[in-house]
Amino acid sequence: MNSDLVLRFGAGAKIFAVSLFAIVLSLIVFGIFVALSGVNPLDVYDLMYMGAFGSWFSWQNTLLRSAPLLLTALCTALPAQMGMVIIGGEGAFVLGGLAAAAAGLLLSDMNAPALIVQGVMVIAGMCAGGAIIASAGALRHWRGVNETISSLLLSYICIAVLNQMVEGPMRDPTSLNKPSTRALPDWAMLGNIPGMDIHVGLIFGLLFCIVAYVLMFHTTFGFAARMVGGNVRAARMAGLPVGRLILVVTFLGGAAAGLGGMIEVAAVQGRANATIASGYGLTGILVAFLARQNPLIVIPVAILLGGIDASGGLLQRRLDMPDASVVVLQGIIFVILLASESVQGHLNILGWLPRIKPRTSAVAAAKGAE
Amino acid sequence: MDFHYTSFLLSVVVASTPLLLAAAGELVAERAGVLNLGVEGMMLVSAVIAFAVAVTTGSSTLGILAGVSAGVLTSLIFAVLTLSFLSNQVATGLALTIFGTGLSALIGKAYVGMVVKRLPQIHVPGLSDIPFFGPVFFGQDVLVYLSFALVCAIYWFLFKTHAGLVLRAVGDSHDAAHAIGFPVIKIRYLAVMFGGGMAGLAGAYMAIAYNTSWSEGMTAGRGWIALALVVFATWRPFWLVVGAYLFGSIMYLSLYIQGFGVHIPSQFISALPYASTVVVLVAISRDRKRIRLNAPASLGKTFHAAG
Lengths: 370, 307
Known about the structure:
A: mainly alpha; ABC transporter involved in vitamin B12 uptake, BtuC; B: mainly alpha
């Protein structure tokens, strides 16, 4: 038991060490890029730190941006426990936001109590997002359609549906330049956490991550789901309801992203329009991979990437760098992390720490036993 | 507004060519068993490089060559990571797209607002002057003809040559191909680089033939459509042409349909390529035999020679 704990701690420390190494190396590579475009990299690092974590104000900004990332990351991380690569978080996010806006407008017109309006918005957002990702799961299970491609295609369809609805049936005629739905009344909006300028969406996101972690790693349901991810045939032999497990887990992943969309509408924008499709889904995939698909590790990673995101505005204003500079950094982090992960898996550079068994070896062992 | 068939067809050709070029490259990579989701990123990087070179040198040819080289180089990042470092192909492809989007915006900032000379259309005396048929068949730019030639060449290579057979064998079972003694990793490197070069050609087309200027994120999801297109065509080169021109017409129509006075929700039309691909995926997956005949069985799987 004790040695198990040591091993686990060691494995965790190793993941942390590799991620830290990747991030530091990425910052160096990014610095070279910046230097090539004629800006002093030290100024950039300094401003990025200021913009992300330098003051209470920037911390709040960072946390605000990490709230949706927590939820969209789960959209990839949860199905990944079953060996599925889902990249449709953007679609679930957008559809969740649209459904939440529709439900919220309908109920607030009927003067329902604020708590009921918000409750129904949460349910509508989660169901819409969950349904779209669960359909990718269903197509995979019953039709053998590649879930990566189908979730991506569905995501584009969701964005088109959003644009169509806000430009057509749900458009507020007074929104001229930027077609939008009507605004939610102030009393129906989600408030801030007492004493801070951060909306309660952050708490939703943190809770969802913790619940997802407990569900996947400390319940029989989670064990069954991860067994499907390890070896579908073995899971079937053991009598597990594979189809139902896939549906539930993909639904939960989509529901997380849908909740993110609901929060974007109910706490940030106040209405649905094309700006809710602003790439939180794509960054969420990056967060999930950086966190090794672990819902608990998603939390610090989302805060880190939220910080990088938050510092983009400052870089643009002070150094006249394009907004996309921080996207370059994100891409570099992603590439270097993938490289360092496999390098350490094969060469074991950090040899003093206990070696983590690559997940594939368990699969191969199970296959060999068949 | 009158509906001009000639100008409509010309615009459709211009809208479809980048899709066809990028999808043809991806098809070869996927036939070798590599799923590269970084097409959008490769297209953007090569678009900005092609544009920058064409603006500074004033030569379209140099621009196109630079675009192709940029595509090959960015695809090399992907190839090294997935084939030598054995990283996950889906994750690496996404990383490449994110990286390419950012990098192209960074490089392109200096070139926003500049205009380049459009890639000239070939003029065949006599033939190009035939009404209707002339401009459509004999008045296109060189890359349009090249795209058709390349699709034919790819078909010939994949299905009529020994090397193509080996490439398909690697995509269907890398373990069996390795056991026979084929250099799996080397073949996949070449296939990925070819895919990158084609994406580069598509990007260059976007920057100096489709448009004559650079704007951030100008490929607007065409890389993703090209990926969908490969599945839509069930990995067969000639169906790519059908798919590319179908999707190209749809993209063109979704932009201009209001101008024709037809009241169809334009956003729904822009979703049609994606929706029809989902339908095709579901439909072909019902026919397991056909999917098994065409889809590379090792698509997306990491190859690691044991021992």
